[in-house]
UniProtKB/TrEMBL annotation:
This protein's record includes keyword Ion transport: yes
SUPFAM superfamilies: Helical backbone' metal receptor
Protein name: High-affinity zinc uptake system protein ZnuA
Keywords per UniProt: Ion transport, Signal, Transport, Zinc, Zinc transport
Highest rank taxon of the organism: Bacteria
Classification via InterPro entries: Bact_metal-bind_prot9 (IPR050492), ZnuA-like (IPR006127)
Coiled-coil ranges from the UniProt annotation: none
């Protein structure tokens, strides 16, 4: 995968936009820049780079599901004041983004997926053909630290374009964040180095990019956002028994009834892992530690 050229072009474009942005009312003001993101991990990313120069609002709050979420009237009203929206590709964006842009035509939408090789949505053991259609692509790119580095470059470039007077501060924060992501990536690789099993079962397939990055395979119970049928459940139970799965991973926002059914049938535990936790580094260290223990 070649990301360098795209990021370089994006950075050069941001410098040009920064020159043009000098005429923006946001360019020299010390007031925090109002920006919106879709999920809590993005809030952490933007604040790491923007620091006190940004005021970040999150659409999908703690405990809510990106698959079923709908913005509140209060959020839509606040969105009218936003300068930037950092898009990540989660389901509610596909339904609401046009309406959000209509509420604030001057708001710039930054697609943080640019330069990333997207995975198709998974359905049990088979793969649905996604092609180039983002609506069918797996949106959980933030679960992979190397991919967050690409997202971070987009965030830096967008902030510099709108507030060029603080470009050196954004660049410094960006470099510090990249260093932390490199350390996080190294920690995860070292933590998973001793595992003997490479497959793990989940209810909702939120960890595909994490799995791809670290040489694992995620086996989802959910079928393209829907509960599995009896035939699929039977096949999952059989595979779970054959491979000796010791745990099934669920998240707070999803139903766990079928996960518990499969777990009882194969003698496994149900363990909660949260892909939407705001404290990104701490959360992924926890995820790596739990997986290392279960997969040994």
């Amino acid at each position: 995968m070649k990301f360098g050229n795209g990021i370089a072009r994006s950075y050069l474009a941001s410098l040009l936009a920064a020159w043009i942005g000098c005429w923006s009312p946001y360019a020299y003001t010390a007031d925090p820049l109002p920006v919106f993101v879709s999920i809590l991990p993005q809030k952490y990313f933007v604040e790491r780079i923007g620091g006190q120069r940004v005021q970040v609002s999150v659409m999908v709050r703690q405990g809510q599901s990106p698959e079923t979420y709908e913005p509140t009237p209060r959020q839509m009203a606040k969105l009218a004041q936003a300068k930037l929206y950092f898009r990540i590709g989660i389901p509610f964006e596909n339904i609401w983004l046009e309406r959000m842009i209509a509420a604030n035509p001057k708001m710039e939408v930054v697609d943080c997926r640019q330069g990333i090789s997207l995975l198709p949505v998974m359905q049990n053991h088979s793969i649905l053909e996604a092609g180039d259609h983002h609506g069918m692509a797996d949106p959980h790119i933030w679960t992979s630290p190397p991919l967050v580095k690409i997202m971070a470059a987009h965030i830096r470039n967008a902030l510099i374009a709108v507030k060029p007077v603080f470009s050196s501060q954004f660049e410094k924060n960006y470099q510090a964040f990249i260093q932390d992501l490199n350390q996080l990536d190294q920690y995860i690789r070292q933590t998973l180095a001793g595992i003997t099993h490479r497959h793990f079962m989940v209810f909702h397939p939120a960890w595909s990019y994490f799995a791809r990055t670290y040489g694992l395979e995620e086996i989802p119970i959910e079928q393209a956002g829907k509960e599995p049928g009896a035939k699929s459940l039977a096949a999952l139970i059989e595979r779970g028994r054959q491979e000796g799965f010791r745990a099934i991973f669920v998240q707070k926002q999803s139903s766990r009834s079928n996960a518990e059914l499969v777990a009882r049938a194969i003698g496994a535990k149900v363990i909660v892992l949260d892909p939407l936790a705001e404290d990104y580094g701490r959360n992924l260290r926890h995820v790596a530690s739990v997986l290392a223990k279960v997969l040994r």
